[in-house]
Amino acid sequence: MLANEMMTTGETTLVRHESYGTVRYANEVLATIAGLAAEDVPGVSAMSGNFIEGMGELLGMKRLNKGISVAVSEQEVTIDAAIVAEYGRSIPVVAQSVRANIIQSLESMTGLKVTAVNVRIQKLDLSTVGNEAIAYA
Prior knowledge:
The protein has helices at about 25-40, 50-60, 90-110, 130-135, and strands spanning about 5-10, 10-20, 20-25, 45, 70, 75-85, 115-125. The chain is elongated and about 60 Å long. By secondary structure, the chain is α+β, with helices and mostly antiparallel strands. The chain is built from four helices and seven strands. Strands 4, 5, 6 and 7 form a four-stranded mixed sheet that branches. A three-stranded antiparallel sheet has the order 1-2-3.
């Protein structure tokens, strides 16, 4: 294997093979970094997970990678992020900020090349809206 070659082995991504050893990241680590980066963006109320993740939260388990899915191929990393956006914010601006923050965080922390971040707005958080506005929704 050549230096800096990437490949996937199960749930672990082989990032670099150097003369002094290898660096491996579990896909869960990449998802956690992406999830925390997405939650830091103004306008993101929460991450939106699937049914099983929701049941885990009811049982008191906090998942830092909730709503994040990671796909790694030989030379690229793709992230899918499902978020809950705050009502009243510009959704395209929030989505672009999420995308940029995930790319910057992953690339600076891991050295991996992120080729795509797909942002899905799963819900709107209406808790910031007055009660009269919710009644008409």
